[in-house]
Specification:
20 strands, about 25% strand, Rossmann fold, binds adenosine-5'-triphosphate, 3 domains, 6-stranded antiparallel barrel, binds magnesium ion
Length: about 500
């Protein structure tokens, strides 16, 4: 039985094919709720963008002021009987034989308006019963389960200010991916974790599916480093310096193959020292040696593999690259740049499973308007963003400063999940870069609470507000309150002092 909520009215603005107003007959109606109107060709579906209240008795300011001088108007007139509410509705489409099509004819004044039923919404929003359960739709009893392909294949961006639940939501997505049965199609997950927020998966029910590699453990094997990569990591290198470097690296590679033993970056430095002995090449040799020595000091390039991706990037498994133990931004960027290139290469050759690469603080790795020198991972991230979809290499970019995130990466993210955001520059940027967001939605973003999200884009046929579901694996995150942090610091200090006293 459909629940009637009002009647379409005629206003100077409509009804039109995209908008109508209705007078509310059920005061449980709320902003954001989906409603339907039966038309001969199917059901028009829309959502309430605003609710306005009106009352004839209070329309004229001077009469209200005059009356209220002696006694309240409500004492002399039946004011409550004349109060009514009008809901404005944005039309999203027409559901016709199970298909959603564009609405091309307006509803009529006088038409009955009904609350949208969950089963119908499921069809309209193109939800997938075996999809990723992210949370519940506001005002409706409906679980939002998004299709795996629609959500990830054309990349996902999670944008919000700090502390609004980005990492929490990402954990929910990871849980869903780890729980998928093989028959539904499983992908591998690689999380680039700046603050050690995902390592906790190791101590949960998903522990067996999780591998954690810390930044200090991670080494890039020298034999996998191409001259192109070195050039990417040392953007100051000139064309002539690069021309000298290539044959030396190629020669070293040949020798490495013949000898069968792994070489390191130190071998390359030595070889450059020997091979570029000519006095004329001094201005090529010196800077090259300087840069390569700096690179070697980062201790990020090793002689052999610390970890092989083929082993860990498996369907239904999570690989966490915990970079929280690295201070040096350059080192982090080099690791991320290598990981992106390597994963994409292996995926193209089908040596690893289709994967989702989660990049926390994406604006640090793929920043907009920052010199190449400080954005070493930007090009590889953009490459996956541009070409990944054909090969099953999916990106999930997470950022609290969308304004600083490379537009060429963000614009490739066809689904956006936006949580609370208050910075006007970020909101404006989101409005410009995400298709399908109108000004009402942008205004609502500032009023969202922690754990509430707006989903817009490929994964859903119409933008919706969702309450993100609770996580199944609650593990201590690093986001402790200041009270807790200071208490535990004092307790640890006290214990240390007591231990010293006992020892003396
Ligand atoms: N859907 C939710 N339900 C319940 N609690 C939540 C939800 N989302 C977030 N929280 C809580 O809010 C706090 C902040 O969340 P989270 O760490 O995910 O924010 P963040 O956006 O990743 O912040 P940062 O930008 O600092 O990384 C956490 O303590 C988390 O437990
Ligand atoms: Mg976070």
């Amino acid at each position: 039985m459909q629940k009637e909520v009002g009647t379409v009215i005629s206003t100077p603005e409509g009804p039109t094919t995209t908008h109508f107003d209705f007078v509310i007959s059920d005061n449980r109606v709320r902003k954001g709720q989906f409603v339907t109107v039966d038309v001969p060709t199917g059901k028009v579906i829309g959502s309430i963008t605003e609710i306005t209240k009106a009352n004839r008795y209070f329309e004229r300011a001077e009469s209200v002021a005059e009356y209220e001088k002696t006694s309240p108007i409500s004492a002399s007139f039946p004011v409550s009987e004349w109060e009514y509410s009008i809901a404005s509705v944005n039309v999203h489409g027409l559901l016709c034989d199970g298909q959603t099509v564009r609405s091309t004819y307006p509803v009529s004044p006088g038409d009955r308006v009904f609350e949208a039923e969950p089963e119908m919404l499921k069809k309209f929003l193109q939800l997938d019963e075996s999809g990723i359960y992210i949370g519940n739709l506001y005002h409706h009893d409906l679980q939002i389960k998004l299709s795996l392909s629609k959500l990830f294949q054309k990349h996902l961006a999670i944008l919000a200010m700090s502390g609004s639940g980005k990492s929490y939501l990402t954990c929910v997505l990871i849980e869903e991916l780890l729980e998928r049965p093989p028959l539904s199609g499983r992908i591998a997950i690689v999380a680039i974790d700046n603050h050690g927020e995902y390592s906790g998966f190791k101590n949960t029910q998903y522990g067996k599916q999780t591998t954690v590699i810390t930044g200090k453990q991670f080494k890039i094997p020298y034999r996998k480093v191409s001259p192109q990569m070195i050039r990417e990591w040392i953007p100051e290198m000139s064309a002539s310096q690069y021309r000298e470097l290539v044959p030396i690296m190629q020669q070293l590679k040949r020798e490495m193959k013949q000898s069968g033993s792994p070489f390191g970056i130190e071998d390359l430095i030595q070889r450059i020292e020997l091979d570029l002995n000519d006095k004329k090449k001094e201005n090529i040799k010196r800077p090259l040696l300087g840069w390569l020595t700096e690179l070697a000091l980062l201790k990020v390039i090793g002689s052999s593999d610390s970890h092989q991706f083929e082993q860990f990037v498996e369907p239904g498994r999570l690989l966490v690259l915990d970079l929280s133990d690295i201070e040096n931004q350059r080192k982090k960027q080099i690791i991320v740049s290598y990981v992106c290139r390597r994963l994409f290469r292996l995926r193209k050759k089908e040596k690893i499973a289709p994967f989702l690469l989660v990049v926390e603080e994406a604006h640090n790795f793929a920043p907009e308007k920052v010199e190449k020198h400080h954005a070493l991972a930007r090009a590889p991230i953009i490459t996956i963003a541009r070409e990944g979809r054909k090969f099953g290499a999916c990106l999930c970019l997470i950022s609290q400063r969308p304004v600083h995130l490379a537009t060429s990466a963000l614009s490739q993210c066809n689904t956006n999940i936006i949580l609370r955001m208050t910075n006007p520059f970020d909101i404006k940027h989101v409005g410009e870069s995400c298709e399908g967001i109108d000004s009402d939605m942008l205004n609502s973003i500032t009023t969202l609470r922690v754990g509430e999200a707006l989903i817009v884009g490929e994964a859903i046929s119409s933008p919706i507000f969702v309450k993100i579901r609770r996580r199944k694996s609650e593990f201590a995150s690093k986001g402790k309150s200041l009270e807790l942090l200071s208490k535990s610091f004092e307790e640890a200090k006290k214990k240390k002092e007591q231990d010293v006293e006992a020892f003396l």
